[in-house]
Amino acid sequence: MNIVVCMKETPSTTAEKSFSPDMRLERRKEDAIPNPFDEYAIEEGLRQQEKHAGSTVTILCMGPATATDTVRKALAMGGDRGVLVSDDALAGSDAISTAHVLAAALKKIGFDLVIFGNAAADAYGGIVPSATAELLGAPLLSYASKLDVDGSTATIERQADIGYNTVAAPMPTLVSVVKAINEPRYPSMKGIMASKKKPLDTFALADLGIDPATVGAAGAREKALSAEKVSTQRKGEIFIGNEGAADRVVAFLVEQKVL
Amino acid sequence: MFFRLSDEQREIQHAVRDFAQHEIAPHAERWDEESYFPRELFRPLAEMGLAGLLVSEELGGTGLSRLTGAVIYEEIGKADMSTAVWLSVHNMVTGLIAKFGDDEQRQRWTPRMAGGEMLGAFALSEAHAGSDAANLRATATRDGDSYVLNGTKFWVTSAGVADVYVAFLRTSDDGARGTTAFIIEKDTPGFSIGKRERKMGLHSSPTGELIFERCRVPLANRLGAEGEGLKIALSSLDGGRINIGAIATGVAQAALDVSTRYAQERTAFGRAIGGFEGIQFMLADMAMKVEAGRLLVYQAAFKMDEGDPVGQYAAMAKCFATDSAMAVTTDAVQVLGGAGYVRDWPVERYMRDVKVAQIFEGTSQIQRLVIARALLGDAAKER
Hints:
The complex is a heterodimer of chains A (259) and B (383).
Chain A: E1 2-6, E2 9-11, E3 32-34, H1 36-51, E4 56-62, H2 68-77, E5 81-85, H3 95-109, E6 113-117, H4 128-136, E7 140-150, E8 153-159, E9 164-170, E10 173-177, H5 189-195, E11 200-203, H6 205-208, H7 216-219, H8 245-255
Parallel strand pairs in A: 1-4, 1-6, 4-5, 5-11, 6-10, 7-10
Antiparallel strand pairs in A: 2-3, 7-8, 8-9
Chain B: H1 7-34, H2 42-47, H3 66-79, H4 81-100, H5 103-114, E1 120-123, E2 139-143, E3 146-157, E4 164-170, E5 179-185, E6 191-196, E7 207-218, E8 222-223, H6 229-235, H7 237-265, E9 267-268, E10 271-272, H8 277-306, H9 311-336, H10 338-341, H11 347-354, H12 364-376
Parallel strand pairs in B: 1-4
Antiparallel strand pairs in B: 2-3, 3-7, 4-5, 5-8, 6-7, 9-10
Helix pairs in contact in B: 1-3, 3-4, 3-7, 3-8, 4-5, 4-7, 7-8, 7-9, 8-9, 9-11, 9-12
């Protein structure tokens, strides 16, 4: 089975975020990490590889040229090779452009199973998996908390309000996973050392036959207008005294559906 | 001149930090409180490749440099000194078997030790002989194709929880050449565990006594030649000292981090206590000590990797980093005031734990002797 895991490079969740005048997130190489949500996708790819002998896992990433380091970080967890799509014209790409690029790269690489994290920790759009599936004309099994691949069928469990839905699709298929699906492994010392020696190809737009005018800032249909820090205000309520305080606490808990 | 870890070392640092902060640090307080030895941690540590640091890949290890090892121990020490200590002892013992064992011994023990199945322990000290390692009393007497062991070992890290013990016993009266190393598995008849020490700190790393009573060990369990014991024991000394320096640096860094955060958040007289010069100067001194200790540790590890003579540098690193860590953790308690003295905050544990770093693997006084002798040569010798 040819497994491809799509991974985005994102700034570390603890890194100080800043924006350029044209409202792009400023990315510093030293803060770059594999999107934490994608670690679950990588882990799932590796587990499927362990279950299905002879499978290969490719880590596919679209990002700046320096993202090779981030792809290698992902490869330290496991996997056979990395593919980075990088081109100056890709800067400022929106979700749809990203999906176009990933779809073209996936066609070029070939795949039976493509796994995504359900969103990226920077913009948190969550659109790319479905857009990519649409462009490829392939099914998407979204928000999987369990994945089974049996012959030519992939089956997932999708958490619902009560219980879960079981959804199946014929292969080749795309899957997006949620955190509940697994516990990502820590990279081992050997994995880190081996990651340096794994093949890592870089594709430019020309390699994928994509017109630069249709992607990046030039082709973006999405425009960030402004960004503000989220300010959280705790609105605590304090009930004091014996007179009715217990009743009010009980009423509050009932209101919150705790009781 | 190097002043930057390699990309690989930084990745290893991040991976170990990530593991230690998620899998170790959140439990350290409870483990300390309950004197609980977290055996369940051993396998995941081994899966990451941290249980065979000094063992080649063919024998199941990772064969990393001493400098990378120092980076690793600092990160684990930052999360929990107890864990870092038993892990470093295990790695040392696994490394000794890989280095001094014959092929059969290597194949028999190192893959299982590096793989997280068997935990290693090291038994050199005796009741009357700590720093004076040439003066051991426990004996091993050759009897046909086996040895009969008698006597007691003290201060053994992981006593009672380890599976494999490398112990040093007297095989003749020939002073330094009268000591021999043996590999002893836990259920060997005649071998038992004595009392577990009730220590000031390092609660989740058990320390205890080994008792040998007519304990028969086959010749195949002798590590190295007869009389080579002290050489084997001493071979691990410099590396062990560097590791303890690294662990202490991690504890000191953790204490500094907590103190800094506390000084930013805690207010008194209408301002953060970090606004007061008295606190600022303490934090500045703490930060200098941590950085200087780390640099000495890195330098000693680097020299060891280069194959340079490292004795006095390992002594400096160990002595300075551990003395500094004691000062820094003590000051951390002071910065936190009442909060520092109670167990809701980790700094009192740091202070209790790190005290022993000035004592084991050669006291701070022994390290100063080593340094002075390197400086003075014959002039430092007693007449």
